[in-house]
Amino acid sequence: MVRRRIPRPSELAPLLRPAPFTLDRTAAALARAASISDLRRLARRRAPRAVFDYTDGAAEDEVSLRRAREVWSSVEFAPSVLHDVSKVDTGRDVLGARSALPLALAPTGFTRMMHTAGERAVATVAAGAGIPYALSTMGSTSIEDVAAAGRGGRHWFQLYLWRDRSVARDLVARAEAAGYDTLMLTVDTPVGGNRLRDARNGLSIPPALSLRTLADGARHPRWWFDLLTTEPLTFESLTAGGGTPFELINRVFDPALTMDDVAWLRETWPGNLVIKGVQSVADARRVVDAGADAVLLSNHGGRQLDRGPVPAELITPVVDELGDDAEVLVDTGILHGGDVVAAVALGARAALVGRAYLYGLMAGGEAGVRRAVEILRGEIERTLQLIGVTRVDDLRPEHARLRGVTDASLHPTGGPSRRARLD
């Protein structure tokens, strides 16, 4: 029989631990966010639907993005126990300089649409975290302003080649003058992908005041207040006019981009040259032979060709082909620090994330980006400790595998074959 009694005040005191009171609702919400998924849910509430979908969505039926996330979810780690993991080193040399994490913040277009703090906030956080940040040609903050905001940090510049090559020459010169050490040429965008969410939402850049957006603005007044009371939302590195993302890409990007342009950039640019959007072993070899220092295995976050190759599945065959000739980077679908650890174990030098920090930006501006990086850092450290590895540089293929895939042969074209099931 249970005997009951009145608890003493001294026994209740340790149980009464109310959360610190704050009037800053955004800070409180960010503090409660324990994962990138939490930040995504918060971003969905904070940003207008068209803006959130522009970040969250992909092309066509979004098969490429869904497959990428499924592959990262299929990772199986092989932990080894009884190691001293009280301290871990998450640093790694990436393209000739140390990064505090095997991670860089990827280039994203029109970032001030997500939050008026935009690229300046991202650059500030990246510099503070000791990781690189790649500014997009389609960015909404200038090359020079991003360098100033992230003073002391490491800056990369992502380049699209315009039909007018003089634009590219000017941008490359400005990036060099501003201290950017890496140029990242995107090659998977000869035409715009069919991003159905944007089409259905009627998204235009800059956002237009229509009946639909005005109705949505009633539910997101702070976002619209910030948009209308801060500096105009424009592309800062070029004059592209307005329109839908699809129209902008098809109007100004050059579908005639070839290997000759890679060779031209190699002769023009003195720093690191990365080719972004490589999706086959054969193309990885071609661009490295043309002078690239690294390839970024990427299908543009699933935003271009739907049902394209999954970048995570390309890491091992591309690393086997390139050896020490170039570094291999990877992106698309990475939403957890464990994904980053797996990418390195499979052979990548580092991973890039885009949506992960954009969710943070939409959720809370600069503080939200900082929270996203904190979450990823914690997940990377914890994953290393739990698999018994104390340094990122010690990660090897035996530490992680993709469940459901084998070391299958490649197609004669150099693309990845679908791999045999193990499970």
From TrEMBL:
InterPro entries: Aldolase_TIM, Alpha-hydoxy_acid_DH_FMN, FMN-dep_DH, FMN_HAD, FMN_hydac_DH_AS
Keyword Flavoprotein on entry: yes
Keyword Oxidoreductase among UniProt keywords: yes
FMN hydroxy acid dehydrogenase domain sequence ranges: 28-405
Gene3D superfamilies for the chain: Aldolase class I
Residue segments, region Disordered: 403-423
Superkingdom of the organism of origin: Bacteria
Enzyme's top EC category: oxidoreductase
Cofactor or coenzyme needed: FMN
GO molecular function: oxidoreductase activity
EC id: 1.-.-.-
Keywords associated with the record: Flavoprotein, FMN, Oxidoreductase
PANTHER family: 2-HYDROXYACID OXIDASE 1, S -2-HYDROXY-ACID OXIDASE-RELATED
Family (UniProt): Belongs to the FMN-dependent alpha-hydroxy acid dehydrogenase family.
The protein's name: Alpha-hydroxy acid oxidase
